[in-house]
Amino acid sequence: MIDYDVLIEKFKSIIKENGLKYTKQRELILKFLYEHDDHFTPEELNSELKKIYPDENIGIATIYRTLTLLEDSGIVTSISFGTQGKKYEFGLKKHHDHLVCVKCSKIIEFYDETIEKKQLEIAKKFEFQMTDHTMKIIGICKNCQKKQ
Amino acid sequence: MIDYDVLIEKFKSIIKENGLKYTKQRELILKFLYEHDDHFTPEELNSELKKIYPDENIGIATIYRTLTLLEDSGIVTSISFGTQGKKYEFGLKKHHDHLVCVKCSKIIEFYDETIEKKQLEIAKKFEFQMTDHTMKIIGICKNCQKKQ
DNA sequence: CTGACTGCAAAATCTTTGCAAAGAC
DNA sequence: GTCTTTGCAAAGATTTTGCAGTCAG
């Protein structure tokens, strides 16, 4: 996993390259995602940040704008839940895919080399310039099966 | 591909089992998706249906309600585009995955046996009761690459 | 200083809901 | 007839935008 200091350097250089500014809000949002290995909606991030930094008062619009910036920079990635919006996670870790539980919304990550390779082949076959790929296995997790 | 008459029978029996009613609106929406092998947003469906059946005046709410019903019945499936909503397609064809172009939003379908098998294995490994799975390869399609 | 960023509130999207009238069975 | 469905418009939910003040470089 990328070191926090290295991450900040990387972020700062992206900021600089694009004539943007390095602000406290942006840092705090990035820091939170870096430190929490999980998936969050913008609204969840907003309330979590309010808990941790009650004095900062980061606006929800800033959360959205920062997440977009971070996603465009490739630092965070998102997973979408149809109508119910998106969840974001820190993105500079090994590529992986997701298992999503329809009952409790829990997300489990996995990685499979065969699938990764196949995806490349398929993109090539259709002459697609692949920028990303996602795979979601939807179902009922072990825990929720027990409850039934 | 399932025959249209068989499809209607299937739909009618689902309707009956659930104490629902078979209405013209529901039929027209299903018919449209059956006849058009493509992916549509609710809004697109709405305007297409208005073009084909200018006298029917199907409300957008009915489109949403019917799509939800059809999706729950397993007759249509949806693919989500993050914040920008969902697209629906007729679902009773061979399972397949999607290539999505970020430039023109075109969707190409593909099927790969190896990936299908791997998904089953992974679900099993995590003791997930898989109900569905999706895979999206995101990138720039052949056509849009040329334009650049 | 200058131009980007922020919080706020308003606006824009997209989707769902309440309700009276219409339609299926 | 009874109970579901419909279209409409209003309400909700989520995300984006405009703007004046603030802040980073």
TrEMBL record, chains A, B:
It is found in: Cytoplasm. Gene3D superfamilies: 3.30.1490.190, Winged helix-like DNA-binding domain superfamily/Winged helix DNA-binding domain. One of its GO terms (molecular function) is zinc ion binding. GO terms for biological process: negative regulation of DNA-templated transcription; regulation of secondary metabolite biosynthetic process. The keyword Ribonucleoprotein does not apply. One of its GO terms (cellular component) is cytosol. Binds 1 zinc ion per subunit. It holds the Pfam family FUR. Signal peptide: none annotated. Acts as a global negative controlling element, employing Fe(2+) as a cofactor to bind the operator of the repressed genes. This is Ferric uptake regulation protein.
